[in-house]
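Practice problem: predict the structure.
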Amino acid sequence: MRAGDRVRLESKAGLNWTWRYPFITETARKMCQAHFAIDGEIVVLDLRGVSDFDALSSTPST
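Answer:
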């Protein structure tokens, strides 16, 4: 979600995960729209293009 300069990534449970995915946060800040919400899921794909849940859960937080 973006409101002006504020960007917040929330889990389905409403937890603030902005710190965990800085690339997504910075990309949202660069978008032209000042206010928006995106509903979706974050996935990590392996070399074959198949989602890899273990890779997502082991993604470094910084």
